[in-house]
Amino acid sequence: MTHRLLGLGLLAVVLALLPLGLPNNFYLDMAILAGLNAIVCVGLNLLVGFAGQVSLGHAGFFGIGAYATAVLVSTHKWPALLALAAGALLSAVIAFAVARPILRLKGHYLAMATLGIGIIISIVLRTETRITGGPDGMIVDPLNVFGFEVYGERVWYWVVAGLLLVTVWLALNLIDSPVGRALRALHGSEVAAETLGVDTARFKAMVFVLSAVFASVAGSLFAHYAGLITPAKADFLKSVELVTMVVFGGMASTFGAVVGAAILTVLPQLLTVFQDYQHMMLGLILMLTMVFMPKGLLPTLAGLVQARTSLGGRR
Fold first, then answer.
1. 4, 43, 59, 216: which sits with the fewest CB atoms below 10 Å from its CB?
2. Residue 136 counted as domain residue
3. Range of the domain at 158
4. d(Cα 235, Cα 125) in Å, to the nearest integer?
């Protein structure tokens, strides 16, 4: 628990000091997008890393949040916070409705089922042109909270950074609770967890819904920040990108999910020469991570530091 509090404090310091080292709004924009991806990945890591359940359709919930906000705020003139809550509720309802049947599956069957859910959501967003604008997307009004309009990269950075800290804090508290211990138990062995009295179906459904809500909230904020949302943000490749971030940073590591999201959001901008091969590069990164760093980047580095410290102490 102490290490996690220290990690949360270090994350807060990094987020507070980061704007001082960013020379212009382009880098602030990258930091904002990385923060939004990190919010999704923290929730997805609870499902994949701690509960051991695969999801290849989480971009769909990101899209639900984004489009719920776009439609309710821009078309029906709802207050932004109410629209964000409505999008989160809709994502939660859909996630709960599909969680029980699909989470009975295991392995590649589960992966295919979640992939199907994401594809269905993406198809609906593309074809319901009267509501969503179709492939061209929708223009979204700026975020307005109690008469204050959130405008400019620097203000948006603090909004996203604050929400990321809250998300990480919630995830850490969940992990240290009896619910977190139940999730780790079913990840280790679902049969053993059931033998010990853990209602695995209920806990899997709960964490699936929670991760969907995190993705929906991030999607709503992205819609306001970007000012334009298209179905591409809810497609299969976006889901693969999110899973790659979690695996690369370190499954069952909340801070690893943040690091993975940050690196893989910024990396494509630094390697613009490979822009046409972005998804091939993501696949290569995922493959190399599984081969050489099966625990992910952050847990591997932490293990190396710990081993070197232990070796130094013996000397």
1. 4
2. yes
3. 25-310
4. 10
Query: Residue 45 corresponds to which tokens in the numbers above?
Result: 């890591």
Q: Using alpha carbons only, what angle is made at residue 195 by residues 193 and 196, rounded to the nearest 5 degrees?
A: 65
Q: Is residue 302 part of a domain?
A: yes
Residue 235 phi/psi, 5° resolution? -90, 180
The whole-angstrom separation of Cα 190 and Cα 212 is 22
User: Rounded distance, CA 78 to CA 81, Å?
Assistant: 8
In a domain, 46, yes or no: yes
pTM of the model: 0.93
What are the residues facing 229 on neighbouring strands? 138
Residue at 10 is within a domain: no
CB 59 within 8 A of CB 236: yes
Q: What does residue 152 show for φ and ψ, rounded to 5 degrees? A: 95, 145
The first and second tokens of residue 30, run together, are 């990258």
- Convert the pLDDT of each residue in 149-178 to its tens digit: 998 999 999 999 999 999 999 999 999 899
